[in-house]
Amino acid sequence: MKSTVINTHKEMTAFSDFPPPGHFQNHMHNSQIKQYLYMYAENFDLLSHIRYKHEVVNVSKADNYNETGRWKVTFKILEQQEILEEIFDGVMLCSGHHSLKTPDAFKGLKVLVIGIGNSGVDADVELSNVAEQVYLSTRRGAWVFT
């Protein structure tokens, strides 16, 4: 989300072999996190391994998983609508508050955000700019300072 700022210090969030630039904020905005991740990928030549406009259809153990620990990934190349399979040594599933989203789909709606963790409050703030009403549900009480 546009307003998301990481809640841990940059040195605690960074990869041990690649510290963030000194001029980055101590609690980095998501745009700096994105830039840092790109710099890391560029530095370690990971960009050539990233495939855009692909959709993962299925992840399963390879036929020889017990011997190799490898995984079979079925994916679709979206531009050609072609489905392929490939075997990988490892699989990492990633999602989270660093994916930049907009709240536009909630314009004029009443919205319930469940959870008062940092991402929940970030979502609440973003939604409050477009939604008719935003409710924040918590398991226990909490203090919110604005």
TrEMBL record:
Top-level EC class: oxidoreductase
Short name of any one Pfam family annotated for the protein: FMO-like
Native source organism of the sequence: Trichonephila inaurata madagascariensis
Protein name: Flavin-containing monooxygenase
Keyword NADP: yes
GO MF: flavin adenine dinucleotide binding; N,N-dimethylaniline monooxygenase activity; NADP binding
Keyword S-adenosyl-L-methionine belongs to the record: no
EC number: 1.-.-.-
Keywords: FAD, Flavoprotein, Monooxygenase, NADP, Oxidoreductase
Cofactor: FAD
Domain of life: Eukaryota
Family indicated by similarity: Belongs to the FMO family.
InterPro entries reported for this sequence: FAD/NAD-bd_sf (IPR036188), Flavin_mOase (IPR000960), Flavin_mOase-like (IPR020946), FMO-like (IPR050346)
